[in-house]
Amino acid sequence: VGNNLSANRLCLSDGPAERSAHGRPMQDHFIPQPTCIRGSRLPAPGERDAIQHDHQRRLEALDRLCAAAAECGVGADPGRDLVVIAEDEVSLLEGAGGEWAALGDAIRAWRAVLPLRRLEDFGFPAGADNPLEEANPRLRRIGGGVEAWAYAAEADGSVYKFYRPNGEDQLIGSAFGFARGEETTLRAEARWGDYRELLEKLVLIQALGGMVTEVVAVTPEGILVAKQVLGEPLPQGEDMSARLPPGLIEIPSRFLRANRDHPRLFFLGPQPYLVADLHARNFVRGSDGGLHVIDLVAAPWPQEGSAGEKLITDWLERVRSDPGASALPGACDDEL
Hints:
With 336 residues, the chain is α+β, with helices and mostly antiparallel strands. The chain has 6 helices and 15 strands.
């Protein structure tokens, strides 16, 4: 990712951006950067494309940062210490050139696509033991769980999600881990994820036509701040099995069991993913009347667990071009 990639490109790289009354691009209510999200308004297709482009570039910048850090022996995992690294962290070492200069460039490119901001910038009080639990005159808490707390902006209703890292082990969000199953080839269980997996989840949500989500900032404590279009929650317990987003492929039970609702296969480009946790609480109804996913649990389909299973590898190749393909050629899955 080049150094010219900055957060100021958000919503300006493709299609007409939403403008303020003064003709300028909309600015976020809390930090000085452009935004495409205002309450329940759904961004235009060009704006969606621009946000997805920024999600993908952010992943590329993180991969570049991890690779550069590994070359300098300072850790390659996308954990909190690396994600919140200061822009000038290695400035004194960059003069040596080589790997240290490359790391300095990678840090600046990363900070350009994920700025560091304090919780106080979002209206939370400074000095509190847990600022997210304190009263905030600018944000009203509307929900949340283990991964993140959600707030609605008093100004326009836009949803701000604060993803909290899990203590000292620097884990955040959720993803799937895979193991061999007893009654099925693979068993998938949700676990804590890392920052890359969290950012990748936002790409998948948008690729599935989910509610548009921008990444706003990360705090020095490692809290990732995202901004999402406001939608109307669905009734608790509503059956989503026949209302899932298009592009999701049902997985034969002989291949995989997961401990989250409605596990499905999804191809993002050439890469297959397991996507699940698609229950009613993770959907909202948008201003267009459509259903949009707002959260999920996912992971790349494991190559190691499938490589020695010819039935799975053959099925993956068939469903890539024919989503309705059965586990065995010419057979109905209900009969297997």
